[in-house]
Amino acid sequence: MAELMVLRDTAVVEAGPIDSSAMIDLGLSEAWDPDWTDERPQLSARVVVAWILAFVCLLGLRTAVSVETGPGDLLWTLSVGSQVSMMGGTDVVYLVDWVEPPLLVALDSRTGGRRWQLDIPRVPYRVSDLGRGIDAVLLREPTGPSAGQTDATILVDRATGVVLARHAGRPVRLTGRLVLFEERERRCDNGSARCREVTALDLTTGTDLWRLRLPLGGRLPADWSTPARFATIGPEGSITVRDVATSAAVVSTPGVNADGAGAWQSAFVADLLIVGKTDSEATVLFAYRAADLTRMWTLRLPRDSPPPDAEVGPLELRTCGGFVCVSDGAGTAVLDAVTGSVQFRTALTVVTRLGGGVLVASSHVSLRGALGGTAADLLALDSDTGDVLTSLPSARLSDAAAGGASMPTGAAAVLLTFGEQRTGFAVMASDGTLSQLFSVDYTDLRCAVGPAVVACLGDDGVLRAWRLSA
Q: Which of 464, 450, 420 is nearest to 12 (CA)?
């Protein structure tokens, strides 16, 4: 593994006067005025260097430097080099060293101290929180001679690094003692067709309870109203509710024979399962009551006209509070989940809803782009009308920067704002108002935001952590 060297960030700890032209102005009613005053006695450069070296020797080269902090102050720094990438977590920051074999290192987000490390067969593309202190390390699909195999997952105890299971596919849901896995479509064992399989892993025994083969084009929605049930979607649009313990069918609906490209997409909201599929002209949507799969409404939604020279993306359905957001790469239709009526349409990609308040939208033309690492215009929309309440250029959701699949669903979201010389951190409340937290003298940062700490890896190969506080 690349040596994790200690770095004293003098640009922050010993900051001088700030160039106000480099600050990021959010247009807030209360000015952002960080406290850059250092009340400690001034020391000579020789004394400072000697003190730092002595402190480093005591802690060891692989221990991060801690400093006395206030809100928004630097907590610790760590030099990791150019061959190390970062993946966000909650109270853990994950580093991946691209050696052979790759090494996954879990750092305590508050101190920078190493909790544990784990050799892994391939470089992961994501670390997801399954709940109950279990993280899923999702490994990239092999290429070359082994292409056609499915992805692989390592389940670890976040606090200790103990490996709970190694399993094919990606984890879709943790329910009780069972983890449901879904494998991507791949060659079947006999090589004659394409297969997608769903498996239930029993964490207490480490064995699979059952294995269910879905037909080509079948899907496994992640959410359901009760932990004892899950659903599958057939390629013709049929819905089957199944028992988690056995995979046996409980109730089913017939197919709807809807043509169109791609697989069925789904969203679960207000005890309703909404499924949809799109073609070149429209998206057809069906809503079913979870209890008995009674169809509640059907909607044929004409596709929005894409902007000039825009590449129309695939259909994306997701829950936006009590709404369903339907995006096709040319805009988003926001639907009332209970009635299926169109609340409004927008050329933006609506990402999520903050509590019962505003909808957060991005100027990216797809959800994948909106949750990626590239900044864009970020806006707060009135959930009734779609009117823009707040606009923030060159920003992104912190959850997207962390590399995870989760999106903010609470009453507020942490945003990253980008200037030519600085990066800022702000909170968007459920009414769309913005409050800036602090800004730092770095750009091109990849950040992971936890409950109390934000950790960012810069292009200089240095990982820095700041206290996150309103």
A: 464
The 8-class DSSP code of residue 275 comes to E
For residue range 27-39, what is the model confidence (pLDDT) as tens digits?
A: 332 322 333 223 3
Contact 146, 109 (CB under 8 A): no
Dihedral-angle region of residue 73 (phi above 0 means left; psi in -120 to 50 means alpha; beta otherwise)? beta
C-alpha dihedral, 341 to 346 to 352 to 354, nearest 10°: -90
Burial of 115 per CB tally in 10 Å (0-12, 13-18, 19+): middle
Residue 2 — φ and ψ, nearest 5°? Answer: -60, 140
Residues in the chain: 470
Reported pTM: 0.78
Interval 237-278: pLDDT, tens: 999 999 999 999 999 999 887 666 667 899 999 899 999 998
Measure the CA angle with vertex 347, ends 285 and 407; round to 5°.
70
Buried b (16+ CB within 10 A) or exposed e, 60-92: eeebbbbeeeeebbbbbbbbbeeebbbbbbbbb
